[in-house]
Amino acid sequence: EEKVAFRANFAMPHEKIVLYVGRFVREKGIQLLLESASAILAVEPDAKFVIVGGGNRAQFERFVEWYGLKEKVLFTGFMSGQRLLQMYRIANVAVFPSLYEPFGIVALEAMAAGAPVVASDAGGLREVVRHGETGISHINGDSGSVAWAVLESLRDPVRTGEMVQAAKARLYTDFCWDN
Q: Does the chain have fewer CB atoms within 10 Å around its N or its C terminus?
């Protein structure tokens, strides 16, 4: 009941939450996710893009309004701690379209919370997300590839669930403090 009530703050019960967590800077690739939104919505009209992060979001809000996506994109502002953990838990997919990412701790956080992960093949994300095994990777800098990866995750919940379980298992072998 708590999860359903929390989720209701961000999306309707029938909507699929596509979650972005990150700063509003070019390197994090938020523009790629927003550019891919129309293509995703053409196939999954019940997708809802929930954008979590801090920084100057005015240009992205203008983009969303100009593209006619205002009803499908929600900017929440910065979140951390328990609230962020809850966001990951209600997401149908967490997307990290970074152009540059030294390590990719946000992907690990999403995996630990049980969120399916879509991430670019940039830098450290390539090491964290094993394409088709622990998540889905997309081509760095390509909004069409972002759309493809998000749709792959949303349209095959059984396969996506298997990747979530594999990601959680990998956390305890490859990313524990001892290793």
A: N
Tokens 């059984």 sit at which residue? 158
Nearest to 137 by CA among 90, 98, 88, 178: 98
Q: Tell me the HSE value of 91 on the side-chain side, using a 13 A CA sphere.
A: 33
What pTM did the predictor assign?
0.95
Both structure tokens of 31: 């523009």
Looking up tokens 């919505």 gives: 41
How many beta carbons lie within 10 A of that of residue 177, not counting itself? 4
Whether residue 95 contacts residue 20, with contact meaning beta carbons closer than 8 Å, is answered with yes
Which strands sit side by side in the sheet containing 136-138, from one edge to the other? Answer: 73-77, 47-52, 16-21, 93-96, 117-120, 136-138
Helix (H, G, I), strand (E, B) or coil at 62: helix
